[in-house]
Amino acid sequence: MASLKPFIPSQHPGVDHDRLIEPLEDWVKKRVTSLYAAGTEENLDAAFDSFIAKDDFTITENGKEISVKQYRDEVKKVSLQTTDSDVTFGSVSATTHDSDAPKLAGMVDVNFSVHGKQTKLNLTVFQDQTLIPPQIPLSGAPGFIDRRRVSKLVVKS
């Protein structure tokens, strides 16, 4: 497996950097669950921020391009009445963009259901370089940030 050290600040000696980043499939499952089972508007906002790119983002739902607001409104209808256990996954598969760093970017296909309603997502995940890592208190060194975000989302339900 390729090292992820170029993507994580070197100020963390002795840290197993490859273990800090979860596989792309697991990252997507956690983000989809946090979206669809947010429980509150505050959690939904945080879920969107940690999953969806702020710029250059497109959503196509059943062949029609929709706005982020439309998609968020649809997810909100479900997410405020859903818990983690209501989100179940069928298949999740990823095709990486970079064989040297397979956890960082790629195409992901996800089949899941919420309250029995089946949904399929096709995602394009990339490294969003516009995200600024937090500063480590007292040292001023940059902290770790997971820059993975979705730039393209195709929803089939």
Brief synopsis:
This is SnoaL-like domain-containing protein. With 157 residues, this protein is an alpha+beta fold. Helices cover 24% and strands 29% of the residues.
Describe the structure in your own words.
This protein has about 160 residues and is α+β, with helices and mostly antiparallel strands. It has one domain (about 20-130, about 140-155): Nuclear Transport Factor 2, Chain: A (Roll). It is built from four helices and six strands. The protein has a six-stranded mixed β-sheet, with helices on one face. The longest helix is centred in the N-terminal third of the chain and has 13 residues, at about 25-35. It is globular, with a radius of gyration of 16 Å.
CATH class: Alpha Beta
Shape: globular
> Numbering strands along the chain, what is their spatial order in the largest sheet?
2-1-6-5-4-3
Percentage of residues in helical conformation: 10-25%
Distance from first to last alpha carbon: 35 Å
CATH topology (fold) name = Nuclear Transport Factor 2, Chain: A
Strand runs, count: 6
Please mark out the parts with pLDDT under 50 across 5 or more consecutive residues, or reply none.
1-12
Query: How many helical elements?
Result: 4
Strand content: 25-35%
**Helix- and strand-based class?**
alpha+beta
Instruction: Give the SSE string.
Output: HHHEEHEEEE
Organism: Antrodiella citrinella
Protein name: SnoaL-like domain-containing protein
What attributes characterize this protein structure?
single chain; 157 residues; alpha+beta; Nuclear Transport Factor 2, Chain: A; 6-stranded mixed sheet; 24% helix; disordered N terminus
